[in-house]
Amino acid sequence: MTPATSANAVRRTLHKLLTLCSLLAAIGAANSAAAQGLLVDIRPDHSIRLPRPIPVPTPQPGSYKITGLEVDAKLTDQIARVQVSQTFKNTGGQLMEVAFVFPLPYDGAIDQLTLLVDGKEYQAKLLPADEARKTYEEIVRKNRDPALLEWLGQGMFKTSVFPIPPGAERTVTLRYSQLCRKSHGLTDFLFPLSTAKYTSQPVEKLRIRIAVDSQEPIHNVYSPTHTVKIERSDDKHAVVTFEANGVVPGQDFRLLYDTGEQSVGASVLSYRPKGDEDGYFLLLATPQIESADSQPVAKTVVFVVDRSGSMTGEKIEQAKGALKFVLSNLREGDLFNIVAYDSEIETFRPELQRLNDETRAAAIGFVGGLYAGGSTDIDSALRRGLGMLTDSSRPSYVIFLTDGLPTAGEMGETAIVNNAEESNHVRARLFAFGVGYDVNSRLLDKLARANFGESEYVRPTEDIEAAVSKLYRRIGAPVMTDVAIELFSKGVKPAEARLNRVYPKGPFDLFAGDQVVVVGRYSNPGTDDNVLRLTGSVNGKQQTFEFTTELAKHSSDDTNAFVAKLWATRRVGEIIDEMDLKGRNEELVKELVALATEHGILTPYTSFLADETSDVRAVPLNVTRAMSESVSLEDISGTSGVRQREAKGAFQKASQAPAADAASAPGLGGGGYFGGNVSYYDRMKDKQVAVDRIRQIGRKTFFQRGDRWVDSSVSEAEEKSAHKVERYSPEYFALVDRYGRHVAQYLAIDEPIVVKLDGQTYAW
Predict the structure, then answer these.
(1) d(CA 670, CA 691)
(2) 159 and 276 assigned to the same domain
(3) DSSP secondary structure letter of residue 309
(4) 539-554 burial string, b = 16+ CB within 10 Å, else e?
(5) Which residue range(s) make up the domain with 213?
(6) What kind and span of H or E run contains 139?
(7) 321 and 208 belong to one structural domain
(8) What end-to-end distance do the CA atoms of the chain give, in Å?
(9) Interacting residues of 481 by C-beta distance below 8 A, sequence separation 6+
(10) Helix 464-475 to helix 314-329 angle, to the nearest 10 degrees?
(11) 556 lies in a domain?
(12) 3-class state of residue 585 by DSSP
């Protein structure tokens, strides 16, 4: 084919394949930046499916991989200025004549778009949603590839055609500006990253950098999809970064942030997919970053450090480094003391000391003289440290460190916990650090839960000083303590029953530079008559903040579906914690199995649901099996005991709903290659394992049964009587019109599927 003929063919068929990648609609995410794109072979006589990262014996025609993807964006108030640089490599054996296509943002507010291929500017043409949809359907039918249906219903930009010879690379650079959507006080930036899962191999290098620049103080900065690094130079600027190598992105990148002048910023998102059940809410709360002349809240810190014989060598040196870090970062007006213990108890001073240059220097000298030797009297050490605390008007923190089991004094688990509780008269928060695998991890968890704190575990290869320093950086500057939340309607007495199963449980603290993510369930939704009230203590005085909020009566799309998944993740952690610390019972195990089935959240005790031989509908059998598997919680030490509690803590403190590592693709080192997969901690193999028989997509979880994927809510009878829909028929495409845009995600699944939509079961 000559270049001229090729160009004519392009003009005739460009209209057909414009829309190849409309990814923003898939999630119904209704907002921000869309630029991530796909390459489409535009020759009319070629029917080529999009590449997948599945190893094949020989290169396939039309196959390409993404070697690099870099995203830089600057968000100024609601305006996003984005540059995307994406490098494609032709991994097939033939010349590719391709167009680069990408979706129009949901609200269409995009301008100043420039697109370059290897530095040469190409024109981009816009197709409106109705015209783009026809093109989508034509391409899907032509290539017998349902993948594009994930983005059905969006407008589309496309470029003119350019060639990529076999083995050659092309770098596509896209620059554009866009108005981001703002909802419930949150500016919502979405980058359609998951289009990069259409690649023959994992993306070699992925980097995202978002700079937020606001005229008002920035409060919450939160990604519900990725674990990001957030740096704040002051209260009006933040830089958010995410980097990964060798990954197959399974979900889009989403960033939420809010601004305001209040000293505490709070925003609420809600999700209620079933109108006859309680909804789900997520609260983000962040105190304003303190100014240089503001007066910090004075606190008390007591360090209780293990110096028993097992701490000899590098451990004691790292512990001493952690002590020196805390001492160096205490503030004027703080009170402190150090309790060092083995079989005997030694304190820096008999009473709490006020921090000044003299006491700091003396304390550092005391730390330098510590050495390891003797047994481990945990009970006496904690009673001594907690007994020093008498002032309940100031926040108090106990940092407790041990690397072993109690071997002196009181050694009974229950007695040690009870004694610590009785000695804690000021509601001090106890942060327990278990070092290595010889600790009684259940004891540490009990101590932390009974004393309003958290437990952390430092693996043998990890640095004690780094772990303690990380915690102290977070809790070093309390702003508001004993924070409680309640929801009520204007003019009506607060009704706590409207919020239930809220996590974290009980009052929490807000720290400078920290952000609290609270999730829970709500009943009796309303609109602008709802008031969320935060109450807490600031320098010993009660303060109250109120925020008007809206709680959804019914959610027709999956924009905020992650809120339900995150709540279920935290709830799973709480269930395991109750089973661990208070004893297992059938009611808890039954709920654990139900959450695993509905939300695709696997644990070491429900991982059998991923077995080919398991039937998710056999609930009594699955509950019995989970009860049996959870016997492993009786392991209190060793690798199994510590890692189980580490995994439990990860559920309890999750800020994002768990997702499988998409880098672990079949044949590439692990489970699920296509996104939406599920992973769990395998205590026998001591690693996180991705499974490929379960997919969590939008609001639904699918289990593989034979050659098809079945919605977990579909009964055996419903599966047998499912209405058959011919794939690629008019009825097939009409399902999106009939049931909502979230259904497009299910249409995009390659394999046969059975799904329930509004009470009707379909199969295609």
Answers:
(1) 8
(2) no
(3) G
(4) beeeeebebebbbbee
(5) 3-259
(6) helix 129-143
(7) no
(8) 38
(9) 297, 395, 507, 509, 510, 536, 537, 538
(10) 20
(11) no
(12) coil
| Distance from the Cα of residue 10 to its chain's centroid | 42
Distance CA 648, CA 328 (A): 32
**Cβ of 384: how many Cβ atoms within 10 Å?**
19
Q: Indicate whether 483 and 391 sit together in one domain.
A: no
User: Which residue type is seen at 603?
Assistant: T
The answer to whether residues 331 and 443 belong to one domain is yes
Per DSSP, helices labelled H in 476-609 are: 561-582, 586-599
Q: State the burial class of residue 33 (Cβ atoms within 10 Å of its Cβ: 0-12, 13-18, 19+).
A: buried
Residue 334 falls within a domain, yes or no?
Answer: yes
The residues, any chain, with a CB within 8 Å of residue 234's CB and separated by 6 or more, are 289
* Averages of pLDDT over each 10 residues, the chain, 764 residues: 40 32 27 54 76 66 86 92 90 84 63 77 76 83 85 75 88 84 87 83 92 92 92 92 89 90 85 91 82 72 96 94 95 95 96 96 96 95 97 94 93 96 97 95 96 94 93 89 82 61 90 88 74 85 86 87 95 97 95 95 94 91 96 94 94 80 38 59 82 87 92 95 95 87 85 93 96
Same domain, 149 and 286: no
pLDDT of residue 754: 97
DSSP label at 697?
E
Single-letter amino acid, residue 708: R
Phi then psi dihedrals of residue 118, to 5 deg: 50, 40
pLDDT for 668 equals 37
Q: What is the CATH number of the domain that holds 377?
A: 3.40.50.410
Half-sphere exposure (Cβ direction) of 487: Cα atoms closer than 13 Å: 23
Give the C-alpha separation, 444 to 691, whole Å: 31
- Compute φ and ψ for 290, nearest 5 degrees: -70, 145
Query: What Å distances lie between residue 81 and 72, 162, 179, 378, CA to CA?
Result: 8, 26, 9, 56
Q: Is residue 663 part of a domain?
A: yes
Question: Of 697, 704, 709, 662, nearest to 150 (Cα)?
Answer: 697
Token digits of residue 590: 């039954």
Q: Does 179 map to a domain?
A: yes
Predicted model pTM: 0.88
208 and 318, same structural domain?
Answer: no
Distance CA 452, CA 386 (A): 13
Token pair in block for residue 172? 């596509």
**520 contacts 547 by C-beta, under 8 angstroms:** no
List, in sequence order, every residue forming a beta bridge with 96; answer none if it has no partner: 164
Whether residue 45 sits in one domain with residue 107: yes
For residue 608, the number of C-alpha atoms closer than 13 Å in the C-beta half-sphere is 20
**Separation CA 133–CA 148 (nearest Å):** 10
Dihedral, CA of residue 472, residue 475, residue 477 and residue 483, to nearest 10 = -170
Whether 519 contacts 567, CB under 8 Å = yes
Pairwise CA distance, residues 32 & 45, whole Å: 36
CATH code of the domain containing 17: 2.60.40.3680
547 CB contacts (<8 Å, ≥6 apart)? 266, 267, 268, 531, 532, 533, 534
Element (H, E) at 468: helix 464-475
Task: Please report, as a single letter, which amino acid is at residue 630.
Answer: S
Of 135, 238, 138, 144, the residue nearest 187 (C-alpha): 238
Q: Can you read off the two tokens belonging to residue 591?
A: 């709920």
Rounded Cα distance, 317 and 322, in Å:
9
Q: Which amino acid is it at 757?
A: L
Do 730 and 669 share a structural domain? no
Which residue, of 662, 691, 720, is where some domain finishes? 691
Report how far apart, in Å, the C-alpha atoms of 653 and of each of 487, 512, 608, 643 are: 23, 19, 24, 15
Residue owning tokens 């709830």: 571
Letter for the amino acid at 178? Q
- Model confidence over 565-577: pLDDT tens digits? 999 999 999 999 9
Q: Number of structural domains, the chain? A: 5
